[in-house]
Amino acid sequence: MDSILQQIADSQPSKPPRSKLEFHREFIRKMRRKGLTYRELARVLRDQLGVPVAPSTIHSFIKVRAKHRKLTQFELPSPESEETAKAASDSISGRIAALKCKPVATATPKRRFSFQESEPLKLASGGEW
Fold first, then answer.
1. pLDDT at position 41
2. What is the SS3 assignment for 45?
3. Structure confidence at residue 59 as a pLDDT band (50, 70, 90)
4. How far apart are CA 65 and CA 33, in angstroms?
5. Which SS3 state, helix, strand or coil, does residue 123 take?
6. How distant is the alpha carbon of residue 30 from its chain centre?
7. φ, ψ (nearest 5 deg) of residue 38
8. Helix or strand or coil: residue 114?
């Protein structure tokens, strides 16, 4: 990165997280692993930590940060797995770029009929039905 751009980036202040649940991310992850429902987890956050939150908010928080969105049960990834996922995505993007550069072999379809303008339509030689 250019030194001027690096100075500009370093001079910008960091913004606080947008979600009030971000500070409790690991706690939420551990409680979900223990089998607490979203409703039970919302009750624990409200009663024990003083964080008023709806169960649907917890579900959305986890869903947005889930590794595999196609799974029916969402789970927050561990911080270590996020770092390895970033490294893996770099190698995956390289593999995708290599596949895009690979030439595509196109097979010409077999002709079933032979057409000559002055003759009637005929089966092509070697054509099978």
1. 94
2. helix
3. very high
4. 15
5. strand
6. 22
7. -65, -35
8. strand
Strand partners, 113: 123
How does pLDDT run across 11-54, given as a tens digit for each residue? 888 888 788 898 898 999 899 999 999 999 999 999 999 999 99
Sign of dihedral through CA atoms 59, 62, 67, 73?
A: negative
CA angle 93, 94, 100 (to 5 degrees): 90
| pLDDT top residue among 23 and 104 | 23
End-to-end CA distance of the chain: 64
Mean pLDDT of 55-75: 77
* CA–CA distance, 75 with 68 (Å, rounded to integer): 8
Identify the DSSP state of 91. H
Rounded-to-integer distance, Cα 38 and Cα 43, Å: 9
Query: Residue 77: left if φ>0, alpha if ψ -120 to 50, beta else—which one?
Result: beta
The total of other beta-carbon atoms located within 10 Å of residue 105's CB is 5
E-only strand ranges, 15-63? none
Predicted TM-score of the model (pTM): 0.47
Q: Helix 38-49 crosses helix 55-65 at what angle (to 10 degrees)?
A: 110
